[in-house]
Write a structure and sequence with these properties.
Layout (H helix, E strand, L loop, with lengths): L6 E4 L4 E13 L2 E7 L15 E4 L11 E3 L2 E3 L9 E4 L3 E3 L4 E7 L5 H8 L5 E5 L3 E4 L6 E6 L4 H10 L5 E8 L13 E8 L10 H8 L7 E8 H14 L7 E7 L22
Parallel strand pairs: 12-13, 12-15, 13-14, 15-16
Antiparallel strand pairs: 1-11, 2-3, 2-10, 3-9, 4-7, 4-10, 5-6, 8-9
The structure holds flavin-adenine dinucleotide.
Length: about 280
Amino acid sequence: MSLHEHQTLRHPVILRSLEVQRIERLTPHMQRIVFGGADLPGFFSASPDDHVKLFFPNSAGELVTPTLGPNGPEYPLGSEPSPMRDYTPRRYDAERNELTIDFVLHGDGPAASWAMRAAPGQRIVAGGPRGSFVVAGDFDRYVLVGDETALPAIGRWLEEMPAGARVEVLMEITDTGDRQALTSAASFTVNWMVRDGADAGRGGLLEQALRNLPDAPGDTFYWIAAESRRARAMRLFLDNERGIPKEWIRATGYWKSEKDGNEQARPGDDHSPMNPL
Ligand SMILES: Cc1cc2nc3c(=O)[nH]c(=O)nc-3n(C[C@H](O)[C@H](O)[C@H](O)COP(=O)(O)OP(=O)(O)OC[C@H]3O[C@@H](n4cnc5c(N)ncnc54)[C@H](O)[C@@H]3O)c2cc1C
């Protein structure tokens, strides 16, 4: 195997009905929901960077999901499709048949609103993961950068990192109370940055911290997940100003700010999880 070889895996797309088992408010803006159900066995997620497509009840309170035809997803005619959003499988416990997903409570939106009011016994539908991008494990340092939507992936990544790995996390959160206790066998530091009322779509804290990050000996892999425009700007900074090889950066837009005419913002450049299933 050559140096820093990433792996891309494909998985068959399966839609699963998930039933809420338990809910835990981790921090003021993070709701942990543990799902179970008869469809869950066989769930597979190879990378902390994975995502599932979650389908939430439509305005009539119904779950209307697509069937997967030869031309992609097809919805039944005459019904309002369920809103679909991307979420990170934070933890899958096959023995307990439990899938944990952490939802940022950012305000309005079908996903955040549903998570805020979720109760045991309620159901949603999950599709995927349809693929996994497994980052090479032989970098000298990993720099993980994100807002709170990236925290589930970063928390999982830290838990899965082996002893001997070196990780630096730059994490932007809404309030000091949104800090989480993170654990890892790796050697890691977390720079928690509190927005303190600033707009999560505009930010500046992550960008500045990335600029100020001291160099380290050897090769560094950069993983970035934040609002689309911000993720893209940080990727361009590393690429254009720092000359980091493209294969050592993975930057993904995890959500789109609709303020300031950003409707046209593209998701991150490495992959486009906001595309349809
Ligand atoms: C690969 C991937 C993995 C992800 N994993 C997670 C995860 O594990 N947990 C998680 O909480 N999110 C995660 N996200 C982000 C999540 O999909 C988006 O935040 C999504 O837009 C939320 O949907 P919604 O229905 O709540 O709001 P939407 O209907 O999409 O948006 C409603 C309004 O809220 C704004 N908005 C959306 N998200 C945010 C936010 N985070 N902060 C501030 N304003 C926001 C929008 O600009 C819009 O104005 C992930 C995204 C991707 C692409």
